[in-house]
């Protein structure tokens, strides 16, 4: 069984003095993201799998697919731990997102 990830509706994306941040109004916390994190956040508007995100990041940034699995998985887990995104089980392993 795969997992799918998506944004929580109450999270606010903002730019503050050139820095991109996710703001959780429920606890008042901020989470800064870089350019790749910003891109992933935009993809999380829909439910997506890690594999889908790996493919999309590899298509849009100069990085090898092999390097992305651990980095994206860690990033997503940080977002889950901070209550910024949700993860849900998904049975179809061939479904990448959309």
Give a concise summary.
The chain has helices spanning 35-43, 50-60, 65-81, and strands at 2-7, 12-16, 19-24, 29-33, 85-90.
Give your account of this protein's structure.
This protein is of the alpha+beta class and 98 residues long. It is 38% helix and 29% strand. It has three helices and five strands, in the order E-E-E-E-H-H-H-E. A three-stranded antiparallel beta sheet has the order 2-3-4.
Task: Give the low-confidence spans.
Answer: none
Q: Could you tell me the number of beta strands?
A: 5
If strands are numbered along the chain, what order do they take across the biggest sheet?
Answer: 2-3-4
Proportion of residues in helical segments: 25-40%
Q: What count of helical segments does DSSP give?
A: 3
What share of the residues does DSSP label as strand, in percent?
A: 25-35%
* Global outline: globular
Overall mean confidence score, pLDDT: 91
Any descriptors?
98 residues, alpha+beta, three-stranded antiparallel β-sheet, two-stranded antiparallel sheet, 38% helix, globular
């Amino acid at each position: 069984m795969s997992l799918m990830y998506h944004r929580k509706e109450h999270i606010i994306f903002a730019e503050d003095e050139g820095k991109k941040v996710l703001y959780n109004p429920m606890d008042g916390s901020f989470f800064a993201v870089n350019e790749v994190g910003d891109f992933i956040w935009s993809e999380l508007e829909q439910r997506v799998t890690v594999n889908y995100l790996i493919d999309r990041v590899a298509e849009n940034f100069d990085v090898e697919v092999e390097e992305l699995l651990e980095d994206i998985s860690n990033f997503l887990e940080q977002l889950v731990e901070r209550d910024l995104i949700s993860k849900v089980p998904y049975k179809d392993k061939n479904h990448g997102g959309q």
